[in-house]
Amino acid sequence: MSFTQQPSLEQIRARITKTLKDGIQLDMSTQESKKFLKRHVNSKTNLVIMFVDINSSTQMSLTLTEKKFALILQTFVQEVSLAVLGYGGYVFKYEGDAVIALFPAEYDKTKACINALYCSRAILEIISEVINPVFKANELPEITIRIGLAYGYALVVLYGKSLEKSHIDIVGSSISLASKIASIARPNQILVGEFIYNILLSSANNEHFLRNVKFQEVNLDPRRWKYLSSSDPQSLYHVYEFLENLP
User: In angstroms, what CA-CA distances link 27 with 30, 103, 130?
Assistant: First the structure.
C-alpha cells in the first residue's frame, strides 16, 4: 500500500496550534477533485464515497461565539482534507460541518476501499490524539465525528457547455448512501456499506489485511432504514462497523 508520507502527530499538533492562533493554514480547494471528474464527464466511474461530519454541531453553534465555532470547523475541515489527500482521495465538497471525499476505484476497487478505511482510522486518531487535546488546552469543546463509507458507480454530470466553467456533479446512490450510513453511526464510529464489505472479503489479495481487521454487522431498525440491497431486493442494504485493530 503506497501512500504519501504521513506527517507525525507532533507536526499535525504544531499546525493545529498555529491554526487556532493565526487562522486556517491552507486553502481548502476542491480543484483536484474537479480535475479528476473532468476526465469522466457524462460517463460512469467507480468510487468509494466518504462522508465525515461532526456530531452535535448545531448545539455547538448555539453555545459558542461565531469565531470559536468557525475555528473548530476550519480546523476539522483542514485536517480531514489533508488526511484524504494523503491516502489517495479527493475532497469533493464541503457541506456545513461535513466533508465529502472520493476515492477513485476505476482500476482497483479493493485498493480504494482499503485506502478509505486507512484514511478513516487516521482521521479518528488525529481527532482523539491531537485535535481534542489542543482544543481542550485552548478552552474549546472536544468533538466527536461520524464516518460513513459506500462504494458504487457514479455518473459524472456537467451542468453547462464549458468544461472549465460549468458546474460538475456526481449522481448515484453511493453518495446518498454514504451520507445515510454516517447519519446512523455512533460518535467516532466508522460504518461501511455492504459493497465495501463484500469487495474486501472476496479479494484473494487481501489475506494480510483481513487477518488484522474485523467487521461487525449493524442491527438496523427497518422502521428507520428503508434501503434495499441491490444483490437481494428482498432484504435491507447491509451496514457493517469497521473495528479498528489495523496493524
Answer: 9, 20, 21
Which of 132, 69, 64, 65 has the alpha carbon at shortest distance from 97?
A: 69
The conformation of residue 185, written as its DSSP 8-state character, comes to P
DSSP string, 231-243: S-TTSBPPEEEEE
Residue with cell 459558542: 64
Any idea what the CATH number is for the domain that residue 18 is in? 3.30.70.1230
One-letter amino acid of 37: L
**pTM to 2 decimals?**
0.91
The three-point CA angle 215-216-217 to 5° equals 120
Please state the domain count of the chain: 1
Residue 104: all three cell numbers together? 477513485
Domain limits at 113? 9-243
Distance CA 53, CA 165 (A): 29
Q: How confident is the model at residue 244 (pLDDT cuts 50, 70, 90)?
A: low
Residue 95: strand, helix, or coil: strand
* Cell triple for 57: 454541531
